[in-house]
């Protein structure tokens, strides 16, 4: 049976009573944490902590396959408007948010202590933010040793991907998502960890347009012609991508792009561009595989 919806004023009035900590809780018990954003969720799972609840869990399972939550993990609904009544009834010890959800903090603090994890911030490097976020989550949950091991493996993966890409020709690369209208696409650029990761892998980002606060830009298909030697890697988001591809097959502009005619526009599996360290580790592998296996000889020699 689902939880009845109540107005938020009534919810806040009773939240303190609903959220009283259990008297028999022990210091050794695993922390009961909830993740309203996927970045924190995947980091917790990578550290060996299963959140009791995650927002929009069905989409999480599709986009972040590396660290899957247990089947009994509760679904908090929308990441923008999580189910507060359910969250209160679950009595978490701590609730994790990403900084883009900071506006939810006053409401959620009525339920449990809130920890805001910063991923994308125009004032700092997104890759550095992700590493700091992972360390903070580990510290707040007592998983520092697990974090140290994971970050060592992360660094090894980054070094390995860099070596794998060292022989790839220095074509500029676009990474993004096709818009369903078949005339535009979102591309990742400065401010995103996708851009920071590309630089660390020795890749050149082909995007020249200014980016949003999230590090992406909505551009017209025609703008891709400005960098005719580029590679385009676009995320395969299932039905949404199929609809975009159908529209593009009928587009003479798209079909005339050198990257399309020469097989340099291709799909890669989806990743969460606002995710944490596990998402970056997955993305570095996806980029390396896509560019190593490029169909038209993008390698030196």
Q: What secondary-structure arrangement, pairings included, does this model have?
A:
Elements (H helix, E strand, L loop, with lengths): L7 H11 L14 E3 L2 H9 L6 E2 L2 H7 L10 E2 L8 H7 L3 E5 L6 H4 L5 E4 L8 H16 L2 H22 L6 E7 L5 E5 L4 H8 L3 E2 L10 E5 L10 E5 L3 H11 L2 H4 L2 H4 L3 E4 L8 H16 L9
Parallel strand pairs: 1-2, 1-4, 2-3, 4-5, 6-8, 6-10, 10-11
Antiparallel strand pairs: 6-7, 7-9
Pfam families: Peripla_BP_2
Organism: Ancylobacter tetraedralis
Subcellular location: Cell envelope
Characteristics:
globular, iron transport, six-stranded mixed β-sheet, five-stranded parallel β-sheet, ion transport, disordered N terminus, 301 residues, Rossmann fold, alpha/beta, Bact_iron-sidero_bind
How would you portray this structure in words?
Pfam families: Peripla_BP_2 (PF01497). It is found in: Cell envelope. It is a single chain. The chain is of the alpha/beta class. The chain has twelve helices and eleven strands. Strands 6, 7, 8, 9, 10 and 11 form a six-stranded mixed beta sheet that branches. Strands 3-2-1-4-5 form a five-stranded parallel beta sheet, covered by helices on one side. Helix 7 runs parallel beside helix 12 (277-292).
Provide a quick synopsis of the model.
The protein is α/β, with parallel strands linked by helices and 301 residues long. It has helices at 8-18, 38-46, 57-63, 84-90, 105-108, 126-141, 144-165, 193-200, 239-249, 252-255, 258-261, 277-292; strands at 33-35, 53-54, 74-75, 94-98, 114-117, 172-178, 184-188, 204-205, 216-220, 231-235, 265-268. The longest helix is centred in the middle third of the chain and has 22 residues, at 144-165.
């Amino acid at each position: 049976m689902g939880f009845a919806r109540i107005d938020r004023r009534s919810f806040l009035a009773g939240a303190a009573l609903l959220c009283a900590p259990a008297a028999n809780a022990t210091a050794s018990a695993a922390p009961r944490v909830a993740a309203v954003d996927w970045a924190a969720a995947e980091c917790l799972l990578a550290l060996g902590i299963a959140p009791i609840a995650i927002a929009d869990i069905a989409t999480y399972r599709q986009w972040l396959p590396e660290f899957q939550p247990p089947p009994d993990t509760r679904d908090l609904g929308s990441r923008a408007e999580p189910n507060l009544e359910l969250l209160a009834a679950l009595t978490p010890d701590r609730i994790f948010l990403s900084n883009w959800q900071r506006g939810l903090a006053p409401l959620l603090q009525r339920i449990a202590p809130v920890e805001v994890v910063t991923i994308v911030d125009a004032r700092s490097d997104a890759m550095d933010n992700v590493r700091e976020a992972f360390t903070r989550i580990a510290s707040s949950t007592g998983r520092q040793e697990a974090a140290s091991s994971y970050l060592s493996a992360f660094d090894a993966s980054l070094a390995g991907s860099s070596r794998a890409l060292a022989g790839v020709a220095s074509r500029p690369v676009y990474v993004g998502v096709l818009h369903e209208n078949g005339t535009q696409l979102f591309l990742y650029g400065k401010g995103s960890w996708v851009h920071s990761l590309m630089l660390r892998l020795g890749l050149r980002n082909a995007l020249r347009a200014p980016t949003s606060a999230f590090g992406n830009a909505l551009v017209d298909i025609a703008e891709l012609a400005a960098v005719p030697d580029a590679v385009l890697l676009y995320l395969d988001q299932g039905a949404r991508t199929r609809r975009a591809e159908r529209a593009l097959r009928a587009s003479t502009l798209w079909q005339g792009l050198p990257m399309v005619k020469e097989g340099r526009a291709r799909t890669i599996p989806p990743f969460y561009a606002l995710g944490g360290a596990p998402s970056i580790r997955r993305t570095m592998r996806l980029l390396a595989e896509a560019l190593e296996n490029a169909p038209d000889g993008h390698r030196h020699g």
